[in-house]
User: Which sequence fits this backbone?
């Protein structure tokens, strides 16, 4: 199921605003990610191989988990129109097939003169942080997002 879209403009953001997405990781998610990226490491695809690793079972690609952060940024906080500038990632623990990852993105800082938002990003499984980091995104203003608003002096038209 795809996340519901929510559009926030720079003016709508405030420090502390957060959004959460929960996603159960399926075998087909991992296989699909391997097909798209070409990362066919058997620790992700072969139960027989993965059983002999310290994890004991197949694990999801770390960047698949990180991609769930992108899903929040692009669909909910800040949402459509946001542009990634940078992302740091700290991989803390594995994500296994069947785990439900809770992705939380929180506004940590706003830089008005550049229309940038620094976002704290955390992915957890059953309360354990499996990935964390920060994203820097450019967020459109209402006027930038609505060309008619620009022609009206920078104010969005009233509904």
Assistant:
């Amino acid at each position: 199921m795809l996340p519901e879209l929510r559009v926030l403009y720079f003016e709508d953001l405030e420090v502390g605003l957060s959004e959460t997405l929960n996603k159960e990781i399926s075998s087909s998610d991992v296989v699909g990610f391997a097909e798209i990226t070409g990362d066919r490491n058997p620790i992700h695809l072969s139960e027989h191989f993965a059983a002999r690793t310290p994890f004991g079972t197949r694990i999801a690609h770390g960047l698949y988990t990180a991609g769930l952060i992108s899903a929040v940024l692009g669909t909910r906080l800040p949402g459509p129109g946001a542009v990634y500038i940078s992302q740091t990632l700290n991989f803390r623990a594995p994500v296994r097939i069947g785990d439900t990852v809770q992705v939380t993105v929180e506004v940590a800082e706003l830089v008005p003169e550049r229309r940038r938002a620094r976002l704290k990003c955390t992915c957890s499984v059953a309360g354990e942080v499996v990935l964390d980091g920060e994203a820097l995104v450019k967020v459109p203003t209402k006027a930038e997002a609505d060309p008619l608003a620009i022609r009206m002096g920078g104010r969005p038209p009233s509904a």
User: Anything to note?
Assistant: Residues 25 and 98 are 5 Å apart (CA to CA). Confidence is low (pLDDT under 50) at residues 149-159.
